[in-house]
Design a protein that fits this description.
alpha+beta, 20% helix, 411 residues, 22 strands, Pdz3 Domain, single chain, six-stranded antiparallel beta barrel, Thrombin, subunit H, 3 domains, six-stranded antiparallel barrel
C-alpha cells in the first residue's frame, strides 16, 4: 500500500500566528523571520507524521484469528440409544498458517490411534475408537479372501509405538463391512470421530494406514464426492453413502483412518475402484465408510456385542434383476430398463403395498431406476418408516403404489 503525500505552500492564514503586541516595532523584520520559522516547523512536523504513518502501515502485520473448528462430534442417530464410546481428550488444533503445517498436525494427531492388524488371512489396518481398547476395522480385514470370520483365528494388533497385543473379536457387521476388535493395553489414545455430514467436496483429507504392510503410511487427497453407492465383491453386496476420495488407498489401508485436517476421523477406507478393462486398481479413486455410520454401528457392537438395528431402509423385495433389452425380450417385458422383482417378502412392505414378482420398478420416490445401481442409490437415501411412491410396470400396465419402508433385517 502506497501513501502519497503532496506538499503545499503554507499561507499566513493556514498556520498559527504570533500576537503583534508582544513584539516591538523595531523588531518587525525579526518577527517576520520567526513567523517563517514557525511555518517551516509545522510543515516539517506534518511531513514527518505522514512518513511515520506510512512506515507503520507498510510494516504492520495483522494476524488473522484462528478459525473455529467446523467439525463437530458425530451425533448419535435418533433410533440408536447406545451412548457414544468415550474418546480420549485431545488438545485443540493450533491455527495452521500453511497447508504443510495443517497436514503434519493432522498426521501427528491420527497416527498414534491407527494400528496394524495381522492374521493368517492377511493384514490390514484399524482405528482405536475407545481408550478401553476397542478398535474398528473392516470385516474383510478379519475374513480375508475367504470372506468369513473364523472364531479360532488369531489376530495380532501392533500399535504405532511397535508394541503388539493379541486381539479378540467384540462383534461384526458383514453388511456394512465393519468389525470391532478389543485389546488390553495401557495408555491407548482414541481418535475422535467427526461428523461426516459436515464434509464438503474438495475438502482436504489424509488416509492413514498400513498399505502393503508399510506401517504408519500417510497419503493426501481431497473429498472427491459424497454419498456414493458402491458395489463390493466382499461381505457387503453394496455399501451406500460412501465418501469418494483421491487419497491413495491400497491393500492394507482397509480399516484405517481417513481424517480431516484436525486429525479427526471422517471415514474408514474400505476399497479402491478397479479399471474394468485392465482389472487393476484405478488411481485416485478410493472409498471410505463415513464416520457417522461407523459411530452408529460400533456403539451397538461395543454395548451389546452385535448389531440390533441396521438403520437401513427396506422395501421387502428379493431376487432383483436389472432389466436390459435382452432380459425384456426373454421375459416378454413391456419396458427395456428398470429393476425386475424376483419375489416379495410375505407381509413385508412391498407385499402390503400390492407389489408382486414380475413387476418392474421404473421409479422409486419419483426418481428413475433404470439400473440396479440406480435403484440401490435411491433406496439408500431414504429412511425406515418413510412413505414413498413406487412406480412399476406389470401385466396390467404401469401403476404407482405407496410403500411404507421397513428396516433392513440384521443378519
Amino acid at each position: 500500500m502506497m501513501l502519497s503525500v503532496r506538499a503545499r505552500r503554507a499561507t499566513h492564514h493556514g498556520l498559527p500566528t504570533i500576537a503583534p503586541d508582544a513584539i516591538g516595532e523595531s523588531q518587525g523584520n525579526k518577527g517576520q523571520m520567526n513567523r517563517s520559522r514557525v511555518k517551516v516547523f509545522f510543515s516539517s512536523a506534518f511531513v514527518l507524521a505522514c512518513v511515520l504513518a506510512l512506515a507503520v502501515i507498510a510494516t504492520a502485520v495483522v494476524a488473522p484469528a484462528p478459525p473455529t473448528s467446523t467439525t463437530p462430534r458425530a451425533p448419535a442417530p435418533a433410533n440408536n440409544t447406545t451412548p457414544a464410546a468415550p474418546a480420549s481428550p485431545q488438545q485443540p488444533a493450533p491455527y495452521a498458517t500453511t497447508l504443510e503445517q495443517a497436514t503434519t498436525h493432522a498426521a501427528s494427531v491420527a497416527g498414534p490411534s491407527v494400528v496394524k492388524i495381522e492374521s493368517a488371512n492377511g493384514l490390514g489396518s484399524g482405528v482405536i475408537v475407545d481408550k478401553r481398547g476397542y478398535i474398528v476395522t473392516n470385516y474383510h480385514v478379519l475374513g480375508g479372501a475367504r470372506g468369513e470370520v473364523a472364531p479360532d483365528t488369531r489376530y495380532t494388533v501392533t500399535l504405532a509405538n511397535g508394541s503388539s497385543y493379541r486381539a479378540t473379536i467384540t462383534g461384526t457387521d458383514a453388511p456394512d463391512d465393519l468389525a470391532v476388535l478389543k485389546i488390553t493395553a495401557p495408555g491407548l489414545r482414541a481418535l475422535p470421530l467427526a461428523n461426516s455430514r459436515a464434509l464438503r467436496v474438495g475438502q482436504f483429507v489424509l488416509a492413514v494406514g498400513n498399505p502393503l504392510g508399510y506401517s504408519q503410511t500417510v497419503t493426501f487427497g481431497i473429498v472427491s464426492t459424497l454419498r456414493r453407492t458402491v458395489a463390493e465383491k466382499g461381505p457387503a453386496t453394496f455399501i451406500p453413502d460412501m465418501i469418494q476420495t483421491s487419497a491413495p488407498i491400497n491393500p492394507g489401508n482397509s480399516g484405517g483412518a481417513l481424517v480431516d485436517l484436525h486429525g479427526w476421523l471422517v471415514g474408514i477406507p474400505t476399497l479402491a475402484a478397479a479399471d474394468p478393462r485392465l482389472g487393476t486398481a484405478a488411481q485416485g479413486i478410493g472409498f471410505a465408510i463415513p464416520s457417522n455410520r461407523v459411530t452408529f454401528i460400533t456403539q451397538q457392537i461395543i454395548k451389546d456385542g452385535k448389531v440390533s438395528h441396521s438403520g437401513r431402509p427396506y422395501l421387502g423385495v428379493r431376487g432383483l434383476q436389472e432389466v436390459t433389452p435382452f432380459v425384456a425380450a426373454h421375459y416378454g417385458l413391456a419396458v427395456e430398463n428398470g429393476v425386475l422383482i424376483g419375489g416379495v417378502e410375505p407381509q413385508g412392505a412391498a407385499d402390503r403395498a400390492g407389489l408382486r414378482a414380475g413387476d418392474v420398478i421404473v421409479r422409486l420416490d419419483g426418481r428413475p431406476t433404470r439400473s440396479e445401481a440406480a435403484f440401490g442409490d435411491v433406496l439408500a437415501r431414504l429412511r425406515p418408516g418413510e412413505r414413498v411412491a413406487v412406480t412399476v410396470v406389470g401385466q396390467g400396465g404401469e401403476r404407482t403404489v405407496t410403500v411404507t419402508l421397513g428396516e433392513l433385517p440384521v443378519r
